[in-house]
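Example for tutorial group B:
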């Protein structure tokens, strides 16, 4: 598996962005990693850059996983989330 790291402020795109014409939909800003207080599970926290601008947390391994090719054979993106713009690119 490729070594990939995201840092706070990075903008990432979810693979479902390929399924919409809305240029802002499925873009998120990385807040950073977190640890579930009850289970110790590693999470990634991120904020939507569209709609309600809510914050979300997803298990880290799922966040970093590849797109399920059986479920989404038409998707070109390799990973569930990929870097759109690094934080240092817009500082």
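The residue assignment follows.
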């Amino acid at each position: 598996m490729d070594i990939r790291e995201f840092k706070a402020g990075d903008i990432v795109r979810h693979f479902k962005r390929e399924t919409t014409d809305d240029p802002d939909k499925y873009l998120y800003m990385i807040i950073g990693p977190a640890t579930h207080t009850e289970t110790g599970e590693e999470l990634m926290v991120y904020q939507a850059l569209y709609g309600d601008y809510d914050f979300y947390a997803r298990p880290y391994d799922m966040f970093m996983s590849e797109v399920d090719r059986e479920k989404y054979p038409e998707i070109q993106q390799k990973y569930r989330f990929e870097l759109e713009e690094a934080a240092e690119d817009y500082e």
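The mean pLDDT is 93. Compare this with the pattern of hydrophobic and polar residues in the output above.
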